[in-house]
Amino acid sequence: MSLPAAFLQATARLIPQERRFDDPLSTLAFGTDASFYRLIPKLVVRVESEREVVELLKLAGAHRVPVTFRAAGTSLSGQAISDSVLIVLGDNWNGREIRAGGAQIRLQPGVIGSSANAVLAPLQRKIGPDPASIASAKIGGIVANNSSGMCCGTAQNSYHTLAGLRLVLADGTLVDTEDEASVAAFRASHAGLLAQLAELGRQTRANTELAAKIRHKYRLKNTTGLSLNALVDFDEPLDILSHLMVGSEGTLGFISAVTYHTVPEHPHKASALLVFPDVESCCRAVPVLRQQPVSAVELLDRRSLRSVQDKPGMPEWVKSLSNGACALLIESRAATASVLAEQIERIMASIAEFPLEKRVDFSSDPAVYNQLWKMRKDTFPAVGAVRATGTTVIIEDVTFPVEALAEGVNRLLGLFDRHGYNEAIIFGHALEGNLHFVFTQGFDDPAQVARYDAFMGEVAQLVAVEFGGALKAEHGTGRNMAPFVELEWGREAYQLMWAIKRLLDPQGILNPDVILSEDRELHLKNLKPLPAADEIVDKCIECGFCEPVCPSRGLTLTPRQRIVIWRDIQARKRAGIDTTELEAAYQHHGLDTCAATGLCAQRCPVGINTGELVRQLRGQQVQHNGTAGWLAGHFATALKAPASACLQLIRPAACSARRAWRAGPPVCISSSARHCGQRPCLKWRSR
After folding, report:
1. Fewer beta carbons under 10 A from the terminal one: N or C of the chain?
2. Exposed/middle/buried for 619, CB within 10 Å: 0-12, 13-18, 19+?
3. Which domains, from first to last, does the chain contain?
């Protein structure tokens, strides 16, 4: 179904044409996030101001048009894609303000997580959440997914370090919980909504069985469903509202700014690797370590260690470990070197009675601890690098009660064997009982889809029903686990989530089918194809880690999007579909404007340099030979000509534009008009 004409006309008046995309190339490019789902939006809108978000939501409500918000698109569960309107953050959402000497920081949703930490680093502070994607993920997504990570645990996630929130509700209402005037106006205009939230909180706290279940669930690392803990942790309705927004994945409102209580970033650290002879002894050590001054304890099963043992820089002893070995990578941090030494002594004394197959003692030498952490961080890309072309890499994250961690690991290993996932590995944040398991999966025939369905059904029963754990610990519910939310939480809690959704989004226009869905087979629909395109890029898992460093980001396509489009072109050709129009658009958006710097390879988990593909495709275009020949004979002229034609070269002091050479005159690939005060001219070479 097409979008209403009145909505499109009103949107066109609100958003300039250069920030509205409905062409086949753009919508396909934005139809991908880091998950294994794909939805093609009918319209992509790049927003640059809060006012635009407010007005778009008013329009969406008036015309009942579903919308989805997107920051970096590193989401793993399908929460950043849409088949309706996709609202993407532009470049003007990077505001940051340090408060109280670094004890707090106010951030807009477009700030990349690692950038926030870079601002705080001189003050020896950081934000609490530390997802593995922190160098790419943006604050909007980190809060909306309640992302955590290796050191974050449950105490330092967005929910528990939230100091304030500025948000836009589904009806376009703006409220800032740190602005007294804004709060007063909101209390007056939305008294009914706040009263209903307060009543939901009272009813939930009075229901002792349900309240106890909620408290138990959030003692674990848990992002399945909406944040019901807000109803038992707070009685002030505005506090309930702001904490419900955390982990809501864009289904309850738009987060315009967040203020965090920051946490210490201690300068002294050391890491050790302890290899136990079996899973049982390894997991029995975890509750002991929870009582010690450790900042991270990462579990790696033998399969994950085997996946990296042949990589360059890995120690030889990894290859000789027994088949049942299981390791713990431990890190401790402190404000001073002497305190760190005391902590290490306490940690090692606490587990002195445990049998060890191999021990790498605590070291603060960067060469040693970086090698140990490289072992942990390379596990995910190691599986991606060996997957068969056409399959995808799936990374799930579940939580077992820590006391049941050993049995949980062994039961998961049994499921891998029963369903034929021989390449699957397990690693995770052991202190929280949070396990990631990674496997490869094809979706190109019904048998493979049925296999995946059967496997995930058994995983859900194992984790949520038998062990009372969480099906999503930190990656968010998304589309992937939406059909299983009721299974995990039970009908009463599930209906409470729906009551919250209908209260805050009565028309159901905010990210429908994410977190809450009535479609019990949603996780098996809109599965993303990863067809063969070229050996250079076939290992791409479309995670988006490459995007922040791409020079043409914001002008045309990112490396991830270049690969997405080229894959689609090749798949269409094999199917006998005409690709003339798509390839013509790809010439400019995919090839002409790629800087081919190789920066993307530095961020890619599997080392893909998309620039290599671009250079290869350029080389195949024989029509460029004449231009290259002309350039070879008229190089001095080529250098002089653009200087008189491009305003950005006339005023270099005001320009930070990045330029790329291809077989012809230079091409300006500035990603923003602010570099020279004028809109970038994509045809200046011919003027």
Report:
1. N
2. exposed
3. 1-265+484-510 (3.30.465.10), 266-475 (3.40.462.10), 531-613 (no CATH), 622-687 (no CATH)
